[in-house]
Amino acid sequence: xxxxxxxxxxxxxxxxxFSQWLSELKARSNSSLQQMLAEMALVRExxxxxxxxxxxxxxxxxxxxxxxxxxxTDLREKLNSAFTEITSLVKxxxxxxxxxxxxxxxxxxxxxxxxxxxxxxxxxxxxxHQQLQNSLVQxxxxxxxxxxxxxxSKKQAQSVQEGAQHKMTEVESTLKRLRSSLExxxxxxxxxxxxxxxxxxxxxxxxxxxxxxxxxxxxxxxxAHGKLSTQVSLLEESxxxxxxxxxxxxx
Length: 251
Fold this sequence. Notes:
Elements: H1 8-185, H2 190-245
Helix pairs in contact: 1-2
């Protein structure tokens, strides 16, 4: 049945109920719409806020990225500079090592040369030391021989002097005896006197010659003694120099 078959009271009640239901539905719809609009406003505010945060985040990210890019560029430059410096240091170290090795080799060569020179000097010193020792032994022998010759010459000169004095004493005694004999006997004869005078003259001549020989011998002995003394002084000086040369070298 339609609405036309219902009574008017029922229709009004139905319409009123329907109107009330529509009002409630409209109210609920408006409430839902308001709630939806409020939620959409909240969502819109949230989106706006998030968009602002996102923009700020993007700006901050760009700034951070730029800073990181700048730091990265700086680090790259520093790294390149460090690599360049390391390369330079490596080259310099290689050059310094080569120079050091060259100096070490030169020092080794000098050490070898000095060692050879030292060995040669030791051999030369040993040979010179042996020669000086031999020379010292010879000089000592010569000194002993010279001293022996000096002593023998002194003894010989003393013996000659004593013999000459003894002979002069004998000649003087003979002259005294002859003079005494001549005074005692007087002048027995002129011939005998002449013989005596001749003997005296011969004795005087012999004495004069002997005196000259004695003085010549004395002069030659003095000259020989002087030469021997000079030679002894020279030998002593040579012996001192040899002894000083034989002193050990300082280490």
